[in-house]
Amino acid sequence: VFYGREDEIPLEQIHAWRERIDGPVDYVGLEGGHFFIHSGESLLVRQVLDRMQGQRAPDIMSRREALPLA
């Protein structure tokens, strides 16, 4: 689940994706608010493509943000 770190959506709502996804859920916080896809489009596209190919982009590790469990 990609989300904007500065989004006003509560973390509980982001965590709610666990109820809709079968299997493990990985949360990745990217710079920006609700429309982070506009300002971080190239990073987001790269992350999606890398995940589809079974890889993780090297720079995501420094940007990954662990969400506290609710």
In short:
The chain has 70 residues and is mostly helical. The protein contains 4 helices and 2 strands. The two termini are 16 Å apart.
Topology, pairings included?
Elements: E1 2-4, H1 11-15, E2 28-30, H2 36-39, H3 41-52, H4 60-63
Parallel strand pairs: 1-2
Structural summary, described in words:
- With 70 residues, the chain is mostly helical.
- It contains four helices and two strands.
- Strands 1-2 form a two-stranded parallel ribbon.
- Strand 1, helix 1 and strand 2 (28-30) form a beta-alpha-beta unit.
- Mean pLDDT is 79; it is low at 58-64.
The 3D shape can be described as flat
What's the overall average pLDDT, rounded? 79
Please list the strands of the largest sheet in the order they lie side by side. Answer: 1-2
Number of distinct beta strands: 2
Q: What is the rounded distance between the termini?
A: 16 Å
Strand content: 5-15%
As a whole number of angstroms, the C-alpha radius of gyration is 12 Å
Which properties best describe this structure?
70 residues; mainly alpha; two-stranded parallel ribbon; 4 helices; flat
